TrEMBL record, chains A, B:
It comes from Sediminibacillus albus. This is Copper chaperone CopZ. It is found in: Cytoplasm. Pfam families: HMA. Its main location: cytoplasm. The lineage of its organism: Bacteria, Bacillati, Bacillota, Bacilli, Bacillales. The keyword Metal-binding applies. Keywords: Chaperone, Copper, Cytoplasm, Metal-binding. Coiled coil: none annotated. The keyword Cytoplasm applies.
Length: 67, 67
C-alpha cells in the first residue's frame, strides 16, 4: 500500500531525517520519502503490519503534526 | 574566555543541538549555549586550547554560517 501523509512543522534536513527514520523504524513500513518543501511524505507499507494511526503517532512523537 | 558567535540558518531544536554539540565537542570549549531565536551562541572556552577559527569551522561543518 502507499499513502501520503501531510506533515507540518518540518524546517530542516534534521527534521526530514527524524520523520523518515521514525516511519521507517515501524515494522511494516518499507519506505518513507519526505519532501521538506511541501511537507508531503510518501510511505510504502504493508497494511497487515502497520496502520495509518501507527504512522501518525510515530510522526507526532517526533514533535510534528500530521494534517 | 567568553565569546558570542552569531550563527545563521538554525531553524529548529535539532539545529540548536547540532551547533551546541559541535562546539562542545572541541577540546577547550567548556560550554556553548545556543539561543535559537536570535542565533546567538555564548561560548566559554580556554584560549590556550581552541581558537575562534576552530569554532567557526566546527559550526560551518554542520551547515550553518557564522556572521
Amino acid at each position: 500500500m502507499k499513502t501520503t501523509l501531510e506533515v507540518k512543522g518540518m524546517t530542516c534536513g534534521h527534521c526530514q531525517s527524524s520523520v523518515k527514520g521514525a516511519l521507517e523504524g515501524l515494522a511494516g513500513v518499507q519506505n518513507a520519502e519526505v519532501d521538506l518543501a511541501t511537507g508531503k511524505v510518501d510511505v510504502s507499507y504493508d497494511e497487515s503490519q502497520v496502520t495509518l494511526t501507527d504512522m501518525r503517532e510515530a510522526v507526532e512523537e517526533q514533535g510534528y503534526d500530521v494534517a
